[in-house]
Amino acid sequence: MELYLLFTAVLCLLSINIRDISGQYSPNWESLDKRPLPSWYDEAKFGIFIHWGVFSVPSYNSEWFWWQWKGAKTPSTVNFMNKNYPPGFSYADFAPDFKAELFNPDEWANILGASGAKYVVLTSKHHEGFINWGGKYSWNWNAVDTGPHRDLVGDLANSIRKKTKVHFGLYYSLFEWFHPLWLQDKANNFATRDFVTNKMMPEIHELINTFKPEVLWSDGDWEASWKYWNSTGFLAWLYNESPVKDSIVTNDRWGKGTLCAHGGYYTCSDRYNPGVLQKHKWENCMTIDRGSWGYRRNSQLSDYLTMDEITQTLAETVSCGGNLLMNIGPTHDGRIMPIFEERLRQMGDWLKVNGEAIYASKPWIHQNDTVTKGVWYTSQKTVNGTAAYAIVLDWPKGDLFLGAPVPTTRTTVTMLGVAKPFKWLPGPKGGITIHIPPMSPYDMPCQWAWVFKLEYLAFH
Asked: What SS3 state is found at 215?
């Protein structure tokens, strides 16, 4: 009997070891949170978010329009609806006008590729439940049966993969405002799970198996617990068995209690930008339009971030170990508006010069400078050791003093995009003073945020 028990114990230990070696994850947070984040995501640093759907039709104060039209309607939304739409007009009545007749996925791929982004995340379904492909679990409330009458997700995925090296990802809202099963489960205080069993779970499996995204950006999770959503069960399948089990990354929006605590990388909140180094990989999802995720017809030029603001946000984010996911909102007819295209192409031009300080970089021993404001640091391993990159947001007025670096007699200072090294002197009480020679606009490597590369520093 004792020998049998010993033999059984050994078999159990072997099965555990085999499971660990094979990379199998159990449906609990303790196991799932141990999954290493695929390396491509941390190296990418910069991605593009795309909010596009039925909400693009009204294009009016879009960030809040969805919520206001859901029920808590503000006077501005009520006035807008009364003025422009007949009595009894419902949200579903917007869908036929979401035609995407000018949508050219190859053109989108060209713009997105030119931005320097390493991944893109498209809304496959937002909170209203309309899906941007022809899924079988959303009959007549999808982009194939109504509106565009085409598979928007599949068309963009094909163009991105055919014409760029950008990783393709998808946003997916777990809940749906108008779905009767969701409303039923909610009325039952989530004691029933009919919406999860019959709608959400089969649909999200369909999404993964059909389009094989490398990012799954979950959202709409906050009203119910992760147990209601069966989030751990789904993630165990995603990491163990799905066609993208080795490459996919996920976020932290999987039910109450998971935000900034469980999942792949953390988003914590919209436009999360802590300004200090974080212990866990995180992402700053933000918008070029300060006030909206979707396109707004009533936006003003001042509503859009300038390139100075965008490069500052990128520098702050990457210096503190995060990725930047920058959002655009296309029009209902399928166009990326010129203001968005301009910012994306400008970002790509900036990254062509300064990408060495961004892509695959690591946080340095300091995130921002100890003396001079508006300077953020990253680092890279090079053949000469570890190089520090000082991202200077404002062009120096005279020589540039940096308080964080400790120079040695071998230290070299260059600016990315400029071949000739810069002269420097050690600071009187530490730090380094970089001599900035006169430079004409034609000699400047870029228009915003200049990067100084410092090698052979003393790291103490």
From this structure: strand
- Identify the residue whose tokens are 């120079």: 407
Nearest to 459 by CA among 364, 347, 361: 364
What is each CA distance from 31 to 23, 112, 191, in whole angstroms? 10, 36, 26
C-alpha dihedral sign at 50, 51, 53, 58: negative
Residue in 91, 92, 164, 152 with CA at minimum distance from that of residue 122 = 152
3-state SS, residue 312 = helix
CB 217 within 8 A of CB 251: yes
Angle, helices 62-70 vs 75-84, to 10°: value is 90
In 3D, which of 408, 438, 441 has the Cα closest to residue 422? Answer: 438
Alpha-carbon distance of 147 to 149, in angstroms, equals: 6
Our CA dihedral for 185, 131, 89, 77, rounded to 10 degrees, sits at: 90
Could you give the CA distance from residue 299 to residue 309 in angstroms, rounded to a whole number?
18
Strand partners, 412: 455
Tokens 């400078």 belong to residue: 369
Distances from the Cα of 195 to the Cαs of 149, 187, 200, 203, 294, in angstroms? 26, 12, 6, 11, 27
For residue range 292-334, what is the model confidence (pLDDT) as tens digits? 999 999 899 999 999 999 999 999 999 999 999 999 999 999 9
Taking each helix axis as running N to C, give the angle between helix 201-211 and helix 152-163, from 0 to 180 degrees, rounded to the nearest 10.
30
Q: pLDDT per residue over 102-125, tens digit each?
A: 999 999 999 999 999 999 999 999
Amino acid letter, residue 72: A
Contact present, 281 and 266 (Cβ < 8 Å): yes
Helix orientation angle between 201-211 and 231-240, rounded to the nearest 10 degrees: 20
Give me the phi and psi of 29, to 5 degrees please.
Answer: -65, -35
Q: What is the pTM of this model?
A: 0.93
Whose CA is closest to 216, among 226, 227, 205?
A: 205
DSSP letter for 199, please. Answer: I
Q: Yes or no: say if 327 and 293 are a contact pair by the CB < 8 Å rule.
A: yes
* Paired sense of beta strands 432-434 and 375-382, if any: unpaired
Q: Which of 440, 432, 428 is nearest to 458 (CA)?
A: 432
Token pair listed for 104 = 């050219």
Q: Which residues pair with 173 in a beta bridge?
A: 219
